[in-house]
Structure formats: C-alpha cells, structure tokens
Amino acid sequence: RPITIARAAKERMADSENRGANSMWGGRFAQGPAAVMREINASLPFDKRLWRQDIAGSIAHARMLGAKGILTTDEASQIIAGLEAIHAEYAAGNLPEDLDLEDIHMATEARLADKIGPVAGRLHTARSRNDQVATDFRLFVRDCADEVDASLALLQRALVDRAAEHADTVMPGFTHLQSAQPVTLGHHLMAYHEMIGRDRSRFRDARARMNLSPLGAAALAGTGFPTDRHMTAAALGFDGPTRNSLDSVSDRDFALDYLMAATQCSLHLSRLAEEFVIWASQPFGFISLPDAYSTGSSIMPQKRNPDAAELVRGHAGRIMGCMTALCVTMKGLPLAYSKDMQDDKPPLFEAHDLLGLSITAMTGMVETTSFRTERMRALAESGFSTATDLADWLVREANVPFREAHHITGRAVKAAEEAGLQLAALPIATLKGIDTRIDERVYAVLTVDASVASRKSYGGTAPDQVRARIAEARAALNGEAGQ
Ligand code: ARG
User: Fold this and answer.
1) At what angle do helices 463-481 and 129-165 cross, to 10 degrees?
2) Which atom of ligand 1 is nearest to the CA of 43?
3) Which mutation among 333, 342, 344, 348 tests ligand 1's pocket best, with the greatest number of atoms within 8 A of CB?
C-alpha cells in the first residue's frame, strides 16, 4: 500500500505515548513528543556540521568554570578530557544521528555523559543552548569568511596573471554590448580583480564586526555565577565578549553580513561567468574553454558547452535566495531567542558551499582558458571602434568643439559603412570631403593599438597603465601572502 500523505501524517502524529519524556529537559513532561514534533524540532541533521565549534566552545567554557571555582579542577579536567575524546570520535566520522538528541549541543552532552558519567551534567552550568549556539555559529561563520577570503585571493592571482599575459592584447570594449572603444584584455580582467577586492573587504568587515563572544550571555539575561566572559572570549579567538546578553542570543546579523557579502560576490562571479559564456559562443569566439570546464552534448557531437560558467551564473540566484531566506526568518522577531532562528543554518551552509564551488570553478576557468587574441583583434578593428579617436583628434588638432567633431565623425562612419570599409581604410579624399580640416596625420589615431595606447589617464586601458595597476596588485597580493 503506497504511503499516502494522510497515512504518513497519522503515523507522524502518533507514537508520543510510546516514548519517554526527553532526558535533557523532560522533567515536567509526562509524555514524549509526537513523531512529527521530533522531526520538525531536530536540527541535528544539519547542525552536526558545527561539531568542531561546539566542542571548542564547551572546552573553553569548562576551563573557565574550573578556573573560577564554579567547578572543581578535577570536574573540569574530566569534562575537558571527555570532550577531547569525543572530538576524536567525531573527527573519525562517527557523528551522532539520533533525532531524539535534537541538536549537536545535546548530542554532545549526551555522549559526554556516556563517557564520563554524571559529572557531564555540570558542563551546562552558567550557559544555555542559546548562547552556545550563537557562539558556535559565529565561530563557524568566522571560518567561512576566512575561507572565502583566502580562495578569492587565489582568484585575484589568476586574474592578475592572465592580465599580465594580455596587457597588450586588444579586444573590443562594449557598452550596451555594442562595440564601443577598443580596450585591452588585461584591462578587462583587472576590472574583475577590483570587484573581487571589494568583495574580500566586505568579508573582512563582516568578520571584524562579528568577532565578539556571545558565550556566557546564557539564556537571555546573563548568569548569577561568577563567570569570566573575557576568558572564554580570548580562548576562542574573539576580540572580547559581546556587551548585551539579549542581543547576544537573538541576533543573526553576523550570518546575514556573510550572506550579503556572499550575494554581492556571487553577483560579480556571475558577471564574469556570463562573459565567459558569451565569449565561448561561436559568434564571439573570443575563448575556447578547456575540456576540464566544459561538457559535451548527448545528441549534438559538435557541442562544447560552458556548463561550469553557466552554473556559476546560476548559483548566484541560489545564494541570493539563501540571503533572502534568512532575512525573512529574522524579520519582525521579538527579543530574545526564538526557535525560528534554528533555521539560520541551512541557508548559510548552502550559500557557503555554493560560493566555494563557484569561486573554485571560476578560478580554474580563468587560469586555463585560452584567449583567441586574433579573433578579439579582428572584432576590435571592426565596428568603427576608433570613431571617438577621430572626434578627439578633430578637437585636439583642429580645435573643433567636441559636439561638432561628433557630427563630423558620424558622417565619416556613415561613409565608411556605405563603402564597406573601416575608418582607417577610408581614402583621405573621402575624409577631406567630409571636413577639410582632416589631414593625413589622422590615420595615426585610427588604429586600435593607437587608440588603446592613447588612453593613458589613471586607470585607463593603455597597456602602460594596465601594467602599472598589475604591478600594484601583485605587490598587494604578495604582501598579504607574506603576512
Ligand atoms: N538547536 C537550537 C538552534 O539551533 C539550539 C538552541 C535551542 N534553544 C532553545 N531555547 N530551545 O537554534
């Protein structure tokens, strides 16, 4: 008999009579939870991912309780030794699974009781799962920010290396995806280096802001035990303790800071990915994507699809969805902790995993793509991309007001179009026929190389400018690697 929704629902509601009350908090409960209550309540299936942070937090807490005489030194040592043994078990892959244990915090405490007996029950003195989970999650998100920063540094390096290789390679620059002015490929790649640099600074800002310890805020109001929150904060690498216990257990802005930085970063990656998709298409033909980042078609033998780039583009949508999910979860929640906040973790985990894949795939594509530079040059030379240079020449050499020069150049482009020629190939007689102030010297600015070389303004596309920016970028990357 197939399981209908109705039957499954009945089964999930049943079975509370058959279960005993929860051993951690069931003192005033006669009955156990409905099966569905166990299922909806349990975060263990996902929050076991916080196990390292949970054990680190508990060890710091136990050590502090011992140092302050809240536990005896012997009790604290037994607890710490037990937690270290559990660390080894978890690291070997034996993570808890039983949904009755609810979450990683209770599962670890239960495991500690198995190992060291009733003294395990003293670990939870002067704390609550509310400050515990806030601490674990901050530690986790802090690691995420560090990881992303490090992998973005690799992407920056790849961009800088390829840009250095192509500081002189001419390609069409676009506005409205219409040929606008020639630029260099190095300049184009360095634009993404800038974007990624700002993304990195956003992750670093988020990290600096989140780096205060909620541990010891307890359930919501602090504790009457003589704890030392500065001590646990220092042990966990925080800059100090958080200043308000209600805020400590009830905000997840640190996770949102991460998710917003991740969203912005994924938007940047999606733009670069989109360029790769366009560049790899036959009408453009600017790159050939390496086999390692392409797939074939099961029906069209000629196909080489840019799937990795498409997925980087697509993942931005999911990452933004994760950010939106946590925004909506947090919206309108009163102080202090509410169980809604348990839903903070899946979107953070998902976004972090997707972002990691996107950064790594994009780095690989940047490193290994081959750029078809003749094709880029050919397209840069078509499309009248040096029209602005002609107008600028009239301004500079013939003192024509720019607006008038723009009109004159428009007529030259029209003549070239009609003749099926590029601007640089128009006979001087034709150009003089359009405006007598034009002379032979104009040809020097109509080539794409002259065009890019002339754009020497700070941050412009001239190869010398691009090389200067690359040198600075390299020095910065080497400097931080040496830190
Ligand atoms: N699993 C919970 C979470 O992730 C831990 C905190 C539970 N606190 C509570 N008061 N029930 O949010």
Assistant:
1) 140
2) 1
3) 342
